[in-house]
Design goal:
Elements (H helix, E strand, L loop, with lengths): L1 H7 L14 H12 L4 E12 L4 E12 L2 E5 L3 E5 L3 E6 L4 E6 H6 L11 H4 E11 L2 E10 L7 E9 L4 E9 L3 E12 L19 E4 L3
C-alpha cells in the first residue's frame, strides 16, 4: 500500500508565471501561483519502470483537490481523503482501507500538498534545457533534505518555457524504480461536489472496511 501512495504522490501538472535561471526563484513563483488555486481537476498518464526487476507498468489517473481534501482514481484503486481520514479502495478485492490522513502527511504521501512539497523538504538545482515531446523545456532537479527517509533520491521537473507549465515529472527511486508522469489535462477553479471527498459505502455494495487507524 505504501508503494501505491509513493508512486502516485506526483500526479499533477503545474501552471505558473515567470521563468529564470534561478531554480529557487522559479519554484517560489510556482508555489505562489499554486496557492491561488481553489480547486484542481487533472488527468495524467504515468509509466513506472522497475529497473531492478525488469518490470514496466503504465497507468492513468484522475485527481480532484480542494484544500487538504482529494480524490484520486487510478482505475484499480480509488484513494479519497476528507483531510482527516484516507480511504483506499481496491476494486478487485472490494476492500477499503482506512488510515489517518496525518500519518500519510508525515510520510510525505499527501497528494493535496503537491504544489508546495518542495518548500521545506527539498534542495533545487537548475539543470539546463532539454527537449521533451518537441518542446524546449527547463529541467530542474529536486533533492529531498531527509534523503534517507524517502524512497526516492531525485525528482525531475521539465518545464515548458513557452507554455509555462510542467510537461513531465520523473521520480527517481532508490531501489531502481523510476516513475514518469505526463500531464494530459489540468483545470483549476472548477466546482467539485463535497460528496467526492468521502467514501460512500452505498456505492460499493459488500465492501469490506479495514480500519488501520489507531
Amino acid at each position: 500500500m505504501i508503494r501505491l501512495y509513493t508512486t502516485t504522490i506526483l500526479t499533477l501538472g503545474f501552471v505558473f508565471t515567470g521563468v529564470s535561471q534561478d531554480a529557487e526563484g522559479l519554484l517560489l513563483k510556482l508555489s505562489e501561483k499554486a496557492k491561488t488555486y481553489k480547486t484542481i481537476d487533472a488527468t495524467y498518464s504515468s509509466k513506472m519502470v522497475d529497473l531492478k526487476n525488469d518490470f514496466e507498468e503504465e497507468m492513468k489517473g484522475h485527481i480532484l483537490i480542494e484544500d487538504s481534501k482529494f480524490k484520486l482514481d487510478l482505475g484499480d484503486f480509488l484513494i479519497i481523503s476528507n483531510g482527516l481520514t484516507v480511504w483506499t479502495y481496491e476494486k478487485e478485492t472490494n476492500d477499503c482501507y482506512l488510515d489517518d490522513a496525518e500519518v500519510l502527511v508525515e510520510e510525505g504521501m499527501d497528494p493535496s500538498k503537491i504544489f508546495t512539497i518542495w518548500e521545506d523538504d527539498f534542495k533545487s538545482e537548475w539543470m539546463g534545457k532539454e527537449s521533451v515531446s518537441g518542446k524546449d523545456c527547463v529541467h530542474i532537479n529536486l533533492y529531498p533534505n531527509e534523503s534517507d527517509d524517502k524512497p526516492y533520491h531525485t525528482m525531475q521537473l521539465f518545464i515548458d518555457e513557452q507554455g509555462l507549465e510542467v510537461v513531465k515529472i520523473v521520480v527517481k527511486g532508490r531501489e531502481g524504480m523510476d516513475t514518469e508522469y505526463l500531464i494530459e489535462r489540468f483545470n483549476v477553479g472548477v466546482e467539485i461536489p463535497a460528496s467526492n471527498f468521502s467514501f460512500e459505502t452505498n456505492k460499493y455494495p459488500g465492501a469490506s472496511i479495514i480500519d488501520n487507524r489507531l
